[in-house]
Amino acid sequence: MTAAINPQDAWKQMAGVAAAELIKDGMVVGLGTGSTASFFVQALGLRIQQGLQIVGAVSSSQVTQTLAASLGIPLTDLDTHPELDMYVDGADEIDPKLCLIKGAGGALLREKIVASAAKRFVVVADPTKRVEQLGHHYPLPVEVVPLAITPVSRKIAQLGARVKLRQTGATPFITDNHNFILDCTFPQGISNPAELDAQLHRIVGLVETGLFINMASQAILGGPDGVQVFQP
């Protein structure tokens, strides 16, 4: 007997399936990372089994690449295809301007690289990810070179954040790029994402932030009322 899917996963699946319907023959597609993105990847794999012919797909993490390969999705890379037609990924928070916090899954650097190579970035989510202001429900992840973890932590704390090294058990979480992640909580939220992003990028040793600003062109949300589409 198959276990019933919980409502939030059902909403994520609705969004992923709707996004997969946007993929056309001949496209090069970017594949996101995380629970909602995995529903998109599964739906894309089903469409390919049904006859959709894409040129290839670029994965934003090793986990997604393994899933895509298992579903028969043809894989490529940014060396072969430096420009993608569409990138589809989830988000931890989405504000009214479609600015995002991403990185709960630890793939924020590769996600941002693949997203920046796409002509169109579609974010898929459930309604719980919509917020009026970023930073109230999820910490902001930043990827940091291990050598610089202590000085970077101190400099981010000076910007008003509570900073915590992400760990797996008793050891630091290691990204696919062999870096560490700092989860940064701003008690008052993030009032100006672009300004904060610029401040963080001035810190030497910080590789990338989980703030995705002016990158998403569309949000597809699955929810109790069906699929809804939002533009910035």
UniProtKB/TrEMBL annotation:
It catalyses: aldehydo-D-ribose 5-phosphate = D-ribulose 5-phosphate. Substrate binds at residues 33-36, 89-92, 102-105, 129. The active site is at residue 111. GO terms for cellular component: cytosol. Its EC number is 5.3.1.6. It is an enzyme of class 5 (isomerase). It holds the Pfam family Rib_5-P_isom_A. GO terms for biological process: D-ribose metabolic process; pentose-phosphate shunt, non-oxidative branch. One of its GO terms (molecular function) is ribose-5-phosphate isomerase activity. Pathway: Carbohydrate degradation; pentose phosphate pathway; D-ribose 5-phosphate from D-ribulose 5-phosphate (non-oxidative stage): step 1/1. SUPFAM superfamilies: D-ribose-5-phosphate isomerase (RpiA), lid domain, NagB/RpiA/CoA transferase-like. Keywords: Isomerase. Belongs to the ribose 5-phosphate isomerase family. Homodimer. Catalyzes the reversible conversion of ribose-5-phosphate to ribulose 5-phosphate. This is Ribose-5-phosphate isomerase A.
